[in-house]
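Hey everyone, long-time lurker, first post.

I ran two proteins through the pipeline my lab uses and got sequence/structure pairs for each. Pasting them in order. The first:
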Amino acid sequence: MFTVLLRKASVLNVYTGELLADQCVATKGKRIAYVEHENGLATTGQTRIIDLDGGIIIPGFIDPHLHKDHFDQISEFLRLAIPRGTTC
């Protein structure tokens, strides 16, 4: 079934800016398979369940094309990129 199940968290909807409370995020392999209220999702003994106890899940931006050589140090790039949602 699912590989990882993140439970009891709020999820930021980056399109509306709304924080959706009491959500569940489930992955299957390397892909996100489900984001919504848990509603009795079926899991197996091999599903890793992580209870986030009210934490917040925020999607990150993966930049597929970047010229790191424009920055003298990686710390300068990170200082600018992380607050804007770039995770890798």
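...and the second, right after it:
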Amino acid sequence: MILRFYIMPQMINLGSELLRFNQPKNTIECSKNGGCSWVTRYSSDQCGIFRDLMVFGNEIIACTSKGLYYSGNQGRSWVIRCSNGSSYGEFLNLQEDGGTLYANTSKGLYYSRNGGRGWVRR
């Protein structure tokens, strides 16, 4: 069995809120007091295990063990944008450069200029 460990952001800034995923609980949590206390915002196995979060435009994008998900309501609910096992492979982590979204996957580096709806191999 091969264990893989990925370095990824676990917390993002949403203006007056901090948002993070809690790996042991696999939940999305919110803090309105600079991280002194946290409240669960999303708790479900529907998305799989959260690996990476980032703000992209008006959405939050997440890499999970089931694929790429997005939220338009500050992480309260999530919708799949691209599933793992597609021709892109397994989504591992994300990076953003202006209007371009980059995804490191199990099949290489991909980029998207439409918020992750379609991907091109780099």
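Reply from user beta_strand_b:
Welcome! Quick read of the second one: The first strand starts at residue 11 and ends at 13. Confidence is low (pLDDT under 50) at residues 1-8.
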